[in-house]
Design brief:
Elements lengths: L1 E2 L19 E3 L2 E3 L6 E5 L6 E6 L3 H17 L7 H17 L1 H12 L3 H22 L7 E2 L5 E9 L2 E5 L5 H15 L2 E5 L6 H13 L6 E3 L4 H10 L5 E5 L2 H13 L4 E5 L5 E4 L5 H13 L11 E5 L3 H12 L3 E2 L15 H16 L3 E4 L14 E4 L6 H4 L6 E7 L2 H8 L4 E2 L1 E5 L3 H10 L4 E4 L14 E2 L2 E2 L4 H7 L1 E9 L7
Parallel strand pairs: 1-15, 8-9, 8-11, 9-10, 11-12, 13-14, 13-20, 14-18, 17-18, 20-21
Antiparallel strand pairs: 2-3, 4-5, 6-7, 7-24, 12-23, 16-17, 19-22
Amino acid sequence: MDQESNGAAENGFKRPEIKFTQLFINGSFVDSISGKKFETRDPRTGKVLVSVAEGDKADVDLAVSAARQAFDHGKWPRMSGSDRARIMMRFADLVEERLDELAELECLDAGKLLFLTKIIDLDSAIRTLRYYAGAADKIHGETLKMSSEMHGYTLKEPIGVVGHIIPWNFPTIMFFTKVAPALAAGCTMVVKPAEQTPLTALYYAYLAHKAGIPEGVINVITGFGTTAGAAIASHMDIDMVSFTGSTAVGRLIMEAAAKSNLKSVSLELGGKSPLIIFDDADVDKAVDIARDATFFNKAEACIAASRIFVQEGIYGQFVEKLAETMKSWVVGDPFDPRVHQGPQVDEAQYEKILQYIEHGKREGATLLTGGKPCGKTGYYIEPTVFTDVKDDMLIAKDEIFGPVMSVLKFKTLEEAIERANDTKYGLAAGVITKDLNTVNRLTRSIRAGLIWVNCYMQMDVDCPFGGFKMSGHGKDSGLDALHKYMHVKSVVMPIYNSPWS
Protein backbone atom coordinates (compact mmCIF):
# COMPACT_ATOMS: atom_id res chain seq x y z
CA MET A 1 0.00 0.00 0.00
CA ASP A 2 1.07 3.57 -0.57
CA GLN A 3 1.67 5.85 2.35
CA GLU A 4 1.45 9.63 2.23
CA SER A 5 3.25 11.81 4.73
CA ASN A 6 1.22 12.03 7.91
CA GLY A 7 1.40 15.78 7.64
CA ALA A 8 0.77 15.94 3.90
CA ALA A 9 -2.41 17.94 4.24
CA GLU A 10 -1.10 20.38 6.84
CA ASN A 11 0.20 22.74 4.18
CA GLY A 12 -2.66 25.09 3.46
CA PHE A 13 -4.91 23.52 6.11
CA LYS A 14 -6.22 25.81 8.81
CA ARG A 15 -7.21 23.93 11.93
CA PRO A 16 -10.84 24.60 12.89
CA GLU A 17 -11.43 26.62 16.02
CA ILE A 18 -12.58 24.51 18.98
CA LYS A 19 -15.37 26.64 20.39
CA PHE A 20 -17.07 24.45 22.99
CA THR A 21 -15.40 22.40 25.73
CA GLN A 22 -17.83 22.71 28.66
CA LEU A 23 -20.83 20.58 29.57
CA PHE A 24 -24.16 21.66 28.10
CA ILE A 25 -26.91 21.56 30.74
CA ASN A 26 -30.31 23.24 30.63
CA GLY A 27 -29.45 25.49 27.70
CA SER A 28 -26.06 26.72 28.98
CA PHE A 29 -22.41 25.72 28.80
CA VAL A 30 -21.07 25.08 32.30
CA ASP A 31 -17.96 23.65 33.96
CA SER A 32 -18.21 20.29 35.65
CA ILE A 33 -19.06 20.45 39.34
CA SER A 34 -15.71 18.88 40.22
CA GLY A 35 -13.83 21.26 37.93
CA LYS A 36 -12.05 18.28 36.37
CA LYS A 37 -11.07 18.14 32.71
CA PHE A 38 -9.72 15.46 30.40
CA GLU A 39 -7.69 15.65 27.22
CA THR A 40 -8.85 14.81 23.73
CA ARG A 41 -6.06 14.06 21.26
CA ASP A 42 -5.36 14.41 17.55
CA PRO A 43 -5.07 10.83 16.19
CA ARG A 44 -2.73 12.05 13.45
CA THR A 45 -0.04 13.01 15.97
CA GLY A 46 -1.12 11.80 19.40
CA LYS A 47 -0.84 15.38 20.64
CA VAL A 48 -3.44 17.04 22.86
CA LEU A 49 -6.05 19.05 21.00
CA VAL A 50 -7.83 20.56 23.99
CA SER A 51 -9.01 19.80 27.50
CA VAL A 52 -12.73 19.16 27.92
CA ALA A 53 -14.94 19.27 31.01
CA GLU A 54 -15.11 15.88 32.74
CA GLY A 55 -18.66 15.24 33.86
CA ASP A 56 -19.52 12.57 36.41
CA LYS A 57 -22.50 11.45 38.47
CA ALA A 58 -23.17 14.87 39.99
CA ASP A 59 -23.28 16.48 36.55
CA VAL A 60 -25.49 13.71 35.20
CA ASP A 61 -27.88 14.36 38.08
CA LEU A 62 -28.10 18.02 37.09
CA ALA A 63 -28.64 17.17 33.43
CA VAL A 64 -31.31 14.58 34.24
CA SER A 65 -33.08 17.05 36.51
CA ALA A 66 -33.15 19.59 33.67
CA ALA A 67 -34.40 16.97 31.22
CA ARG A 68 -37.07 15.78 33.68
CA GLN A 69 -38.30 19.32 34.25
CA ALA A 70 -38.42 19.91 30.49
CA PHE A 71 -40.37 16.70 29.97
CA ASP A 72 -42.80 16.95 32.87
CA HIS A 73 -43.50 20.67 32.63
CA GLY A 74 -41.87 22.03 29.49
CA LYS A 75 -43.10 22.93 26.02
CA TRP A 76 -41.36 20.32 23.85
CA PRO A 77 -43.52 17.23 24.58
CA ARG A 78 -46.65 19.40 24.48
CA MET A 79 -45.95 21.08 21.16
CA SER A 80 -47.79 19.94 18.10
CA GLY A 81 -45.77 17.63 15.90
CA SER A 82 -45.68 20.29 13.19
CA ASP A 83 -44.15 22.82 15.60
CA ARG A 84 -41.47 20.34 16.64
CA ALA A 85 -40.84 19.62 12.96
CA ARG A 86 -40.36 23.30 12.15
CA ILE A 87 -37.68 23.68 14.85
CA MET A 88 -35.95 20.44 13.80
CA MET A 89 -35.85 21.68 10.20
CA ARG A 90 -34.19 24.87 11.42
CA PHE A 91 -31.69 22.74 13.36
CA ALA A 92 -30.87 20.86 10.15
CA ASP A 93 -30.39 24.14 8.27
CA LEU A 94 -27.93 25.37 10.89
CA VAL A 95 -25.90 22.15 10.62
CA GLU A 96 -25.90 22.47 6.84
CA GLU A 97 -24.69 26.08 7.02
CA ARG A 98 -21.67 24.95 9.06
CA LEU A 99 -21.03 21.71 7.20
CA ASP A 100 -17.37 22.38 6.36
CA GLU A 101 -16.47 23.51 9.87
CA LEU A 102 -18.23 20.58 11.53
CA ALA A 103 -16.64 18.05 9.16
CA GLU A 104 -13.18 19.46 9.89
CA LEU A 105 -13.83 19.30 13.64
CA GLU A 106 -15.00 15.69 13.36
CA CYS A 107 -11.92 14.69 11.39
CA LEU A 108 -9.59 16.47 13.76
CA ASP A 109 -11.03 14.62 16.76
CA ALA A 110 -11.67 11.18 15.20
CA GLY A 111 -9.13 10.83 12.37
CA LYS A 112 -11.87 10.36 9.77
CA LEU A 113 -11.40 11.26 6.09
CA LEU A 114 -12.51 14.83 5.50
CA PHE A 115 -14.03 14.43 2.05
CA LEU A 116 -16.06 11.37 3.12
CA THR A 117 -17.15 13.01 6.36
CA LYS A 118 -18.67 15.83 4.34
CA ILE A 119 -20.55 13.66 1.85
CA ILE A 120 -21.46 10.80 4.21
CA ASP A 121 -21.48 11.78 7.88
CA LEU A 122 -22.69 15.37 7.72
CA ASP A 123 -25.04 14.64 4.84
CA SER A 124 -26.52 11.76 6.84
CA ALA A 125 -26.94 14.00 9.89
CA ILE A 126 -28.87 16.61 7.93
CA ARG A 127 -31.06 14.05 6.15
CA THR A 128 -31.77 12.27 9.44
CA LEU A 129 -32.95 15.45 11.12
CA ARG A 130 -35.21 16.29 8.18
CA TYR A 131 -36.56 12.73 7.92
CA TYR A 132 -37.71 12.64 11.55
CA ALA A 133 -38.91 16.22 11.39
CA GLY A 134 -41.18 15.01 8.60
CA ALA A 135 -42.42 12.20 10.82
CA ALA A 136 -43.09 14.33 13.91
CA ASP A 137 -46.64 15.26 12.91
CA LYS A 138 -47.54 11.76 11.74
CA ILE A 139 -47.49 10.00 15.09
CA HIS A 140 -50.83 8.41 15.85
CA GLY A 141 -52.41 5.41 17.49
CA GLU A 142 -55.09 3.04 16.26
CA THR A 143 -58.80 2.55 16.72
CA LEU A 144 -59.42 -0.92 18.13
CA LYS A 145 -62.22 -3.32 17.22
CA MET A 146 -63.32 -4.55 20.65
CA SER A 147 -65.31 -7.76 20.98
CA SER A 148 -67.86 -6.26 23.40
CA GLU A 149 -69.71 -2.96 23.66
CA MET A 150 -66.54 -1.05 24.20
CA HIS A 151 -64.66 1.60 22.29
CA GLY A 152 -60.90 1.24 22.37
CA TYR A 153 -58.02 3.17 20.91
CA THR A 154 -54.29 3.54 21.42
CA LEU A 155 -52.18 6.61 22.09
CA LYS A 156 -48.48 6.88 21.30
CA GLU A 157 -46.75 8.99 23.91
CA PRO A 158 -43.07 9.96 24.32
CA ILE A 159 -41.25 7.56 26.58
CA GLY A 160 -39.77 10.34 28.72
CA VAL A 161 -36.16 11.19 29.56
CA VAL A 162 -33.69 9.27 27.39
CA GLY A 163 -30.00 8.67 27.98
CA HIS A 164 -28.03 8.41 24.74
CA ILE A 165 -24.53 6.93 24.95
CA ILE A 166 -22.79 7.23 21.59
CA PRO A 167 -19.57 5.73 20.20
CA TRP A 168 -16.40 7.28 18.81
CA ASN A 169 -16.34 5.80 15.31
CA PHE A 170 -19.24 7.82 13.86
CA PRO A 171 -19.79 10.65 16.37
CA THR A 172 -21.96 12.82 14.13
CA ILE A 173 -24.01 10.07 12.53
CA MET A 174 -24.72 8.39 15.84
CA PHE A 175 -25.60 11.67 17.57
CA PHE A 176 -28.38 12.34 15.09
CA THR A 177 -29.39 8.70 14.65
CA LYS A 178 -30.35 8.75 18.33
CA VAL A 179 -31.26 12.36 19.02
CA ALA A 180 -33.45 13.04 15.95
CA PRO A 181 -36.12 10.34 16.44
CA ALA A 182 -36.22 11.02 20.19
CA LEU A 183 -36.81 14.72 19.46
CA ALA A 184 -39.55 13.92 16.97
CA ALA A 185 -41.27 11.70 19.54
CA GLY A 186 -41.26 14.53 22.10
CA CYS A 187 -38.63 13.13 24.45
CA THR A 188 -36.01 15.04 26.40
CA MET A 189 -32.51 13.66 26.75
CA VAL A 190 -29.00 13.48 28.16
CA VAL A 191 -26.31 12.66 25.61
CA LYS A 192 -22.90 11.27 26.53
CA PRO A 193 -20.48 11.27 23.59
CA ALA A 194 -17.45 9.00 23.68
CA GLU A 195 -14.54 10.45 25.64
CA GLN A 196 -12.31 10.00 22.57
CA THR A 197 -14.52 12.23 20.38
CA PRO A 198 -16.49 14.75 22.45
CA LEU A 199 -16.19 17.91 20.36
CA THR A 200 -18.93 17.79 17.72
CA ALA A 201 -21.66 16.75 20.18
CA LEU A 202 -21.11 19.97 22.11
CA TYR A 203 -21.35 22.00 18.92
CA TYR A 204 -24.61 20.26 17.99
CA ALA A 205 -26.05 21.08 21.41
CA TYR A 206 -25.27 24.75 20.75
CA LEU A 207 -26.94 24.61 17.33
CA ALA A 208 -30.00 22.85 18.76
CA HIS A 209 -30.45 25.65 21.27
CA LYS A 210 -29.90 28.27 18.57
CA ALA A 211 -32.58 26.57 16.44
CA GLY A 212 -35.13 27.01 19.22
CA ILE A 213 -35.13 23.65 20.99
CA PRO A 214 -36.09 24.60 24.56
CA GLU A 215 -33.78 24.51 27.55
CA GLY A 216 -33.38 21.08 29.13
CA VAL A 217 -34.47 19.11 26.07
CA ILE A 218 -30.91 18.29 24.94
CA ASN A 219 -28.14 18.08 27.52
CA VAL A 220 -24.59 16.90 26.73
CA ILE A 221 -22.29 15.44 29.38
CA THR A 222 -18.72 14.78 28.28
CA GLY A 223 -16.78 12.32 30.40
CA PHE A 224 -15.94 8.66 30.83
CA GLY A 225 -18.08 5.58 30.52
CA THR A 226 -17.20 4.27 33.95
CA THR A 227 -18.48 7.44 35.62
CA ALA A 228 -20.84 9.52 33.46
CA GLY A 229 -22.01 6.57 31.37
CA ALA A 230 -22.58 4.39 34.42
CA ALA A 231 -24.56 7.18 36.09
CA ILE A 232 -26.85 7.42 33.08
CA ALA A 233 -27.41 3.66 32.90
CA SER A 234 -28.30 3.39 36.59
CA HIS A 235 -30.20 6.66 37.02
CA MET A 236 -33.62 6.24 38.61
CA ASP A 237 -35.09 9.19 36.70
CA ILE A 238 -34.05 8.14 33.20
CA ASP A 239 -36.77 6.21 31.38
CA MET A 240 -34.71 4.69 28.57
CA VAL A 241 -31.10 4.23 27.51
CA SER A 242 -30.01 3.96 23.89
CA PHE A 243 -26.43 2.72 23.56
CA THR A 244 -24.11 1.97 20.68
CA GLY A 245 -20.77 0.37 21.51
CA SER A 246 -19.17 -2.86 22.61
CA THR A 247 -21.05 -5.97 23.68
CA ALA A 248 -19.18 -5.97 27.00
CA VAL A 249 -20.41 -2.48 27.88
CA GLY A 250 -23.88 -3.33 26.60
CA ARG A 251 -24.05 -6.08 29.23
CA LEU A 252 -23.15 -3.60 31.95
CA ILE A 253 -25.85 -1.19 30.80
CA MET A 254 -28.53 -3.89 30.81
CA GLU A 255 -27.43 -4.96 34.28
CA ALA A 256 -27.53 -1.37 35.56
CA ALA A 257 -30.95 -0.81 34.01
CA ALA A 258 -32.29 -3.97 35.66
CA LYS A 259 -30.85 -3.09 39.05
CA SER A 260 -32.19 0.47 38.97
CA ASN A 261 -35.65 1.22 37.59
CA LEU A 262 -35.98 -1.43 34.86
CA LYS A 263 -35.66 1.29 32.22
CA SER A 264 -36.02 0.34 28.58
CA VAL A 265 -32.72 -0.39 26.84
CA SER A 266 -31.86 -0.30 23.13
CA LEU A 267 -28.47 -1.75 22.23
CA GLU A 268 -26.52 -1.68 18.96
CA LEU A 269 -23.40 -3.65 19.75
CA GLY A 270 -20.52 -5.46 18.11
CA GLY A 271 -20.30 -7.53 14.97
CA LYS A 272 -18.13 -9.98 13.06
CA SER A 273 -19.95 -9.69 9.79
CA PRO A 274 -19.46 -12.21 6.97
CA LEU A 275 -19.28 -11.30 3.28
CA ILE A 276 -19.89 -14.45 1.21
CA ILE A 277 -18.59 -14.46 -2.37
CA PHE A 278 -19.69 -17.23 -4.71
CA ASP A 279 -17.94 -18.69 -7.76
CA ASP A 280 -20.26 -16.89 -10.21
CA ALA A 281 -19.33 -13.44 -8.90
CA ASP A 282 -17.50 -10.85 -10.97
CA VAL A 283 -14.13 -11.14 -9.21
CA ASP A 284 -13.01 -7.58 -9.86
CA LYS A 285 -16.26 -6.19 -8.47
CA ALA A 286 -16.12 -8.60 -5.53
CA VAL A 287 -12.60 -7.49 -4.64
CA ASP A 288 -13.65 -3.82 -4.67
CA ILE A 289 -16.70 -4.52 -2.51
CA ALA A 290 -14.70 -6.63 -0.04
CA ARG A 291 -11.93 -4.05 0.25
CA ASP A 292 -14.32 -1.17 0.95
CA ALA A 293 -16.56 -3.31 3.17
CA THR A 294 -13.60 -4.06 5.43
CA PHE A 295 -11.42 -0.95 5.37
CA PHE A 296 -13.96 1.88 5.12
CA ASN A 297 -13.51 4.32 8.02
CA LYS A 298 -10.19 2.58 8.84
CA ALA A 299 -12.35 -0.46 9.67
CA GLU A 300 -13.67 1.25 12.79
CA ALA A 301 -17.17 0.10 11.97
CA CYS A 302 -19.38 -2.44 13.73
CA ILE A 303 -20.67 -3.62 10.34
CA ALA A 304 -17.22 -4.07 8.78
CA ALA A 305 -17.01 -7.25 6.72
CA SER A 306 -14.02 -8.66 8.56
CA ARG A 307 -14.77 -12.28 7.55
CA ILE A 308 -14.56 -12.68 3.77
CA PHE A 309 -15.76 -16.15 2.70
CA VAL A 310 -14.71 -16.93 -0.89
CA GLN A 311 -15.85 -20.06 -2.73
CA GLU A 312 -12.99 -22.34 -3.67
CA GLY A 313 -13.42 -21.98 -7.46
CA ILE A 314 -12.34 -18.31 -7.43
CA TYR A 315 -10.38 -18.20 -4.17
CA GLY A 316 -6.92 -18.05 -5.75
CA GLN A 317 -7.97 -15.44 -8.31
CA PHE A 318 -9.65 -13.35 -5.63
CA VAL A 319 -6.58 -13.38 -3.36
CA GLU A 320 -4.28 -12.43 -6.25
CA LYS A 321 -6.44 -9.49 -7.31
CA LEU A 322 -6.93 -8.38 -3.71
CA ALA A 323 -3.18 -8.25 -3.13
CA GLU A 324 -2.78 -6.17 -6.26
CA THR A 325 -5.51 -3.66 -5.41
CA MET A 326 -4.18 -3.12 -1.89
CA LYS A 327 -0.93 -1.78 -3.36
CA SER A 328 -2.72 1.43 -4.30
CA TRP A 329 -4.46 1.87 -0.93
CA VAL A 330 -3.13 5.09 0.61
CA VAL A 331 -2.70 5.53 4.37
CA GLY A 332 -2.08 9.04 5.62
CA ASP A 333 -3.44 12.35 6.82
CA PRO A 334 -7.25 12.28 6.69
CA PHE A 335 -7.36 15.90 5.48
CA ASP A 336 -5.51 14.86 2.28
CA PRO A 337 -8.06 13.98 -0.46
CA ARG A 338 -5.66 11.39 -1.92
CA VAL A 339 -5.80 9.28 1.26
CA HIS A 340 -8.02 6.21 1.71
CA GLN A 341 -7.32 5.47 5.38
CA GLY A 342 -6.53 7.75 8.30
CA PRO A 343 -5.25 6.98 11.82
CA GLN A 344 -7.03 4.83 14.37
CA VAL A 345 -8.90 6.84 16.96
CA ASP A 346 -6.46 6.58 19.88
CA GLU A 347 -3.45 4.77 21.26
CA ALA A 348 -5.46 2.11 23.09
CA GLN A 349 -7.28 1.06 19.93
CA TYR A 350 -4.05 1.22 17.94
CA GLU A 351 -2.29 -1.14 20.35
CA LYS A 352 -5.27 -3.51 20.49
CA ILE A 353 -5.30 -3.89 16.69
CA LEU A 354 -1.56 -4.56 16.54
CA GLN A 355 -1.97 -7.27 19.17
CA TYR A 356 -4.62 -9.00 17.05
CA ILE A 357 -2.33 -8.84 14.03
CA GLU A 358 0.35 -10.63 16.04
CA HIS A 359 -2.24 -13.24 17.08
CA GLY A 360 -3.01 -13.87 13.42
CA LYS A 361 0.65 -14.42 12.63
CA ARG A 362 1.16 -16.78 15.57
CA GLU A 363 -1.97 -18.81 14.80
CA GLY A 364 -0.70 -19.65 11.33
CA ALA A 365 -2.73 -17.42 9.03
CA THR A 366 -0.89 -16.22 5.91
CA LEU A 367 -0.11 -12.50 5.96
CA LEU A 368 -0.94 -11.26 2.46
CA THR A 369 -0.52 -7.50 2.99
CA GLY A 370 0.26 -5.05 5.77
CA GLY A 371 0.77 -6.27 9.29
CA LYS A 372 2.59 -3.39 10.94
CA PRO A 373 2.34 0.27 11.95
CA CYS A 374 3.16 2.98 9.46
CA GLY A 375 4.27 6.57 9.86
CA LYS A 376 6.52 8.17 12.43
CA THR A 377 3.76 9.81 14.47
CA GLY A 378 0.10 9.13 15.15
CA TYR A 379 -1.93 5.93 15.17
CA TYR A 380 -1.55 4.67 11.61
CA ILE A 381 -1.66 0.95 10.74
CA GLU A 382 -1.18 -0.69 7.37
CA PRO A 383 -4.33 -2.33 5.98
CA THR A 384 -3.77 -5.97 6.85
CA VAL A 385 -5.07 -9.01 4.97
CA PHE A 386 -4.76 -12.57 6.24
CA THR A 387 -5.52 -15.56 4.01
CA ASP A 388 -5.82 -19.26 4.91
CA VAL A 389 -7.74 -18.20 8.00
CA LYS A 390 -9.52 -20.87 10.07
CA ASP A 391 -12.78 -20.33 11.92
CA ASP A 392 -11.26 -20.97 15.33
CA MET A 393 -8.56 -18.30 15.03
CA LEU A 394 -8.99 -15.20 17.20
CA ILE A 395 -8.87 -12.92 14.15
CA ALA A 396 -11.89 -14.80 12.76
CA LYS A 397 -13.86 -14.76 16.01
CA ASP A 398 -13.23 -11.47 17.78
CA GLU A 399 -14.37 -8.03 16.74
CA ILE A 400 -11.07 -6.25 16.07
CA PHE A 401 -12.45 -2.85 15.06
CA GLY A 402 -9.45 -2.09 12.93
CA PRO A 403 -8.00 -2.62 9.43
CA VAL A 404 -7.68 -6.41 9.50
CA MET A 405 -9.37 -8.64 6.89
CA SER A 406 -9.65 -12.42 7.23
CA VAL A 407 -10.14 -14.38 3.99
CA LEU A 408 -11.62 -17.88 4.35
CA LYS A 409 -12.33 -20.55 1.74
CA PHE A 410 -15.59 -22.52 1.47
CA LYS A 411 -17.06 -25.17 -0.83
CA THR A 412 -20.86 -25.25 -0.65
CA LEU A 413 -23.77 -22.93 0.11
CA GLU A 414 -24.71 -25.04 3.13
CA GLU A 415 -21.16 -24.78 4.50
CA ALA A 416 -21.14 -21.01 3.97
CA ILE A 417 -24.40 -20.57 5.89
CA GLU A 418 -23.25 -22.74 8.79
CA ARG A 419 -19.90 -21.01 9.13
CA ALA A 420 -21.30 -17.51 8.68
CA ASN A 421 -23.73 -18.15 11.54
CA ASP A 422 -21.02 -19.66 13.75
CA THR A 423 -20.52 -16.45 15.71
CA LYS A 424 -21.97 -14.83 18.79
CA TYR A 425 -22.78 -11.76 16.71
CA GLY A 426 -25.57 -11.10 14.23
CA LEU A 427 -25.31 -7.51 13.07
CA ALA A 428 -24.83 -7.59 9.28
CA ALA A 429 -23.81 -9.79 6.36
CA GLY A 430 -23.31 -9.63 2.61
CA VAL A 431 -23.58 -11.95 -0.37
CA ILE A 432 -22.15 -11.58 -3.86
CA THR A 433 -23.66 -13.85 -6.50
CA LYS A 434 -25.67 -13.77 -9.72
CA ASP A 435 -27.96 -16.61 -8.61
CA LEU A 436 -31.31 -15.41 -7.26
CA ASN A 437 -32.00 -18.78 -5.62
CA THR A 438 -28.72 -18.49 -3.72
CA VAL A 439 -29.67 -14.96 -2.65
CA ASN A 440 -33.09 -16.05 -1.38
CA ARG A 441 -31.71 -19.05 0.49
CA LEU A 442 -28.87 -17.17 2.11
CA THR A 443 -30.75 -13.99 3.09
CA ARG A 444 -33.33 -16.13 4.88
CA SER A 445 -30.73 -18.32 6.57
CA ILE A 446 -28.18 -15.84 7.88
CA ARG A 447 -29.02 -14.63 11.38
CA ALA A 448 -28.24 -10.95 11.03
CA GLY A 449 -30.23 -7.76 11.19
CA LEU A 450 -29.11 -6.35 7.83
CA ILE A 451 -27.99 -8.25 4.74
CA TRP A 452 -26.62 -6.66 1.57
CA VAL A 453 -26.79 -8.35 -1.84
CA ASN A 454 -24.10 -7.47 -4.40
CA CYS A 455 -23.18 -4.38 -2.39
CA TYR A 456 -22.15 -3.51 1.15
CA MET A 457 -22.55 -0.67 3.68
CA GLN A 458 -25.41 0.90 1.76
CA MET A 459 -27.19 2.68 4.60
CA ASP A 460 -30.18 5.01 4.62
CA VAL A 461 -32.20 6.81 7.26
CA ASP A 462 -35.32 4.92 6.13
CA CYS A 463 -33.64 1.50 6.57
CA PRO A 464 -33.98 -0.01 10.08
CA PHE A 465 -30.63 -1.02 11.51
CA GLY A 466 -29.92 -3.32 14.45
CA GLY A 467 -28.66 -6.78 15.21
CA PHE A 468 -29.53 -10.25 16.40
CA LYS A 469 -27.90 -12.34 19.13
CA MET A 470 -25.09 -10.52 20.98
CA SER A 471 -25.16 -7.65 18.50
CA GLY A 472 -28.00 -6.21 20.54
CA HIS A 473 -31.68 -5.46 20.20
CA GLY A 474 -33.77 -2.51 19.11
CA LYS A 475 -33.56 -0.63 15.83
CA ASP A 476 -31.91 2.61 14.84
CA SER A 477 -33.10 4.42 11.69
CA GLY A 478 -36.44 4.09 9.95
CA LEU A 479 -39.79 4.51 11.65
CA ASP A 480 -38.89 1.62 13.97
CA ALA A 481 -36.46 3.99 15.67
CA LEU A 482 -39.16 6.62 16.15
CA HIS A 483 -41.53 4.11 17.71
CA LYS A 484 -38.98 2.83 20.23
CA TYR A 485 -38.98 6.27 21.87
CA MET A 486 -42.72 6.03 22.52
CA HIS A 487 -45.05 4.16 24.82
CA VAL A 488 -48.28 2.66 23.52
CA LYS A 489 -51.20 3.41 25.83
CA SER A 490 -54.58 1.73 25.43
CA VAL A 491 -57.79 3.60 26.28
CA VAL A 492 -61.09 1.70 26.66
CA MET A 493 -64.58 3.05 27.40
CA PRO A 494 -68.09 1.65 27.17
CA ILE A 495 -70.36 2.41 24.24
CA TYR A 496 -74.05 2.05 25.01
CA ASN A 497 -76.66 1.20 22.39
CA SER A 498 -74.24 1.46 19.47
CA PRO A 499 -75.98 0.86 16.10
CA TRP A 500 -73.13 -1.44 15.11
CA SER A 501 -70.64 -3.63 16.90
